[in-house]
């Protein structure tokens, strides 16, 4: 596992070594959804909001 800080609450986040770039992980402290931006070094960012496509 690799650890980093949540960009929302600065809480510790541990990401499995098997996680891939663009994978969504959840902060155990604030429950924010985060996206793995890079793995080496580990960087996470707030995940983009999923919008409804209204049938498109």
TrEMBL record:
Which protein are we looking at?
Answer: Lysine biosynthesis protein LysW
Question: This protein's superkingdom?
Answer: Bacteria
């Amino acid at each position: 596992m690799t650890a980093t800080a949540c960009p929302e609450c600065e809480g510790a986040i541990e990401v499995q070594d098997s996680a891939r770039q663009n994978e969504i992980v959840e902060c155990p402290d604030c429950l924010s959804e985060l996206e793995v931006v890079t793995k080496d070094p580990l960087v996470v960012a707030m995940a983009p909001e999923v919008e409804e496509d209204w049938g498109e």
